[in-house]
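Obj: model holo form, ligand = iron/sulfur cluster.
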Amino acid sequence: MADQPTSHPRKKLYIETVGCQMNVLDSELVVARLRDDGYELTTDIEEADAILYNTCSVRQHAEDKIYSALGRIKQLKKRKPELSIGVLGCMAQKDQNLILKRAPHVDIVVGPGQLARVPELLTIAKAEAKPQLAVSLARTAGSRDDVTSSFDNYDSDREPSVRPSPFQAYLRVMMGCDKFCTYCIVPSVRGPEQSRPPDGIVAEARALAGQGVKEITLIGQTVNSYKFREPDGRTTRLSDLLARLHDVEGVERIKFITNFPNDMTDDLLQAVRDLPKVSRYIHVPAQSGCDLVLKRMKRMYTVGFYEDMLARLRETIPGSSVSSDFIVGFCGETDESFQKTVGLVERSRFKNSFIFKYSPRTGTKADDLFADDVPEEVKKRRNHELLELQTAISLEDNMEFVGRETTVLVEGRSRSTTRREGWDGVDQLSGRTHCDRIVVFDGPERLIGRMVQVRIENASGVTLFGQVVTAERIASSV
Ligand code: SAM
Ligand code: SF4
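Output (holo structure tokens):
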């Protein structure tokens, strides 16, 4: 964040974000608002005037991390009573006053539907010397309209300086979720499913492109359920939205996450096939390979349906890659049901899978109805086994790329790179292919943000390694 010429010293904001892309975007929007309120970012927690945690409540581990961070900064608040501390996001919506009980040094607790109020709440908490709680209505606390309108949308505030990369941005197309999978807290903490009007989304994409953004990732809990009905009755589906975004000048790549298997319609698959800027990458979580477990999860599809969807997807979009999420050790998952998941992973050849151990969440159907009956060590073992299998498959599929050329959007310096002594001006860069595979190669920093051709020479389970083959053309165009 750039310093502003002002007679008042700017206040320092330290913000930590856990959880999904929604939270990364929410933090960007909160920082945008606080910047207008005289804050600048710091990475030094000791010098902060305000410390904010944007939290996740999908698994217990994410919550434990925040409660221990709050414990650690208790002494800091004692030493600096003027310090403001805030807990934002999903855990704030879920735990509400419990946070103030467990950590009385917290000044504001703000749910994901109230984040636009963070600056105001910080001011009130200070003026009244009293903690402030701002959360949305519970799903059962009123009519659908009342609950929906208690989840505020303020996505037009954008703040480039806190994005992970200056030319990649998230763009929310939907909020909330109505699927109510039995294990999942998201519908409670993120509220009812709402699709944003397409005109606003396209305007935001244009504004992002104007800020230099080349890759936009559309986000929604079930992004392919996107549907917006105009007052005149016309409906915009995700496929229509992709077509409109495809016309935005400056945007070179469009992705969308996360998809729900039942909503993978042919028009969407055809749009991915026909629109060259749309990444040929589909994240469509299966969660389990056992019909009984899927039923208990209330996923509303069978393994057969999922595999048919996968076949249709691959037939329609040649060269696409698919990734999935799995929960292991869900209530009642036997060895036999787990082996069915192993079978699904073997057959499906996912690019990668995100594998989670089931974590019971208070307030979900599964927590009310089923015993968390798979021991922790069994969850761990299944997690490890599935991950090993997936990594072996990913390696085999990645090896197919060796010797081939691929187009890569260069994202930045590879995480493992440090500019060592005697540095020769060549960095190790990292980017992604059109089907979302990570590629690491040597090249000058000025390639960041560009599309380059890379010849793949080696591969691991997660990464392709190669050499730039279009250096001459790139050099002459710089
Ligand atoms: N909306 C997305 C979908 O339907 O796939 C996922 C949202 S959720 C934040 C991301 C992943 O977390 C899920 O796909 C699921 O695998 C995992 N997850 C959700 N609740 C969980 C729980 N209680 N325990 C373990 N993993 C969980
Ligand atoms: Fe959670 Fe299911 Fe909604 Fe995904 S679709 S956010 S897993 S309830």
